[in-house]
Amino acid sequence: MSVWDLREGEVRSWGVVHVVIFVFLTALGALSATLSSFLQVGYGVSWFYLAVVVQVVGGIWFGFWGVLAGVFFPIVGDLVGGIPISISLSLLPANLVQSLIPATYFRFFRVDPALKKLSDWVHFTLSCVILSNLLGAFLGASAMSAWGFVTSDMYFVVMISWFVGNVIPILVVGAPLLKGLTPVIVSHRAFCKRWLA
After folding, report:
1. How many of the other CB atoms lie within 10 Å of CB of 42?
2. Which pTM value belongs to this model?
């Protein structure tokens, strides 16, 4: 039986615990985004963007609530960091895909977040490491370029730095979190087998 399967007679509905999870993930993400700003390679891109772990793991474990926090906390972090709201909002698509792709992928392909089998690791690599970060880096660098925040000659440098700066924390922090804490998380009613609950 998959962690995504409902047990016979099981009814799941969202509640206060999910709103609390959203607030917690937003605060944790904003804090980690702020801390990551001290490790910038330039142009607002961090070489170790720890907050991406909140986006990926939060979306996988908590569905809609994790994805919503993954979109919202960068705006909060940017406001604290003094980044103009126009630039922050233009990065919304990049932040959305970085959280939404893994959350959707794991549910659609019924990947075990505890990464128990080789196939789980392959799916994790495809969705959490490559697809979400490659598309996120492309959308982020494109938005910054469109706003004139990044010069055209620095576009690919920013895109590659964004990608690498996300991949490292996903591998170093995200994978161990999924492997180690998923058995605890899935036993709690806050875990979302579907999108809302």
Report:
1. 12
2. 0.94
- pLDDT tens-digit map of 124-169: 999 999 999 999 999 999 999 998 888 889 999 999 999 999 999 9
CA distances from 112 to 130, 172, 182, 187 (A): 18, 19, 9, 14
Residue for token pair 């233009």: 90
Residue with tokens 């390679």: 41
Model pLDDT, residue 44: 66
Percent of the chain surpassing pLDDT 90: 80
Q: Are 97 and 135 in contact (CB under 8 A)?
A: yes
Nearest Cα to Cα of residue 45 among 91, 111, 101, 84: 91
What pLDDT digit, counting tens, does each position of 67-108 carry? 999 999 999 988 887 778 888 899 999 999 999 999 999 999
Give the chain as a DSSP string.
Answer: --TTSPPTT------HHHHHHHHHHHHHHHHHHHHHGGGEEETTEESS-THHHHHHHHHHHHHHHHHHHHHHHHHHHHHHHT--HHHHHHTHHHHHHHHHHHHHHHHHTT--TT--SHHHHHHHIIIIIIIHHHHHHHHHHHHHHHTTSS-GGGHHHHHHHHHHHHHHHIIIIIHHHHHHHHHHHTTSTTS-SSS--
d(CA 61, CA 31): 20
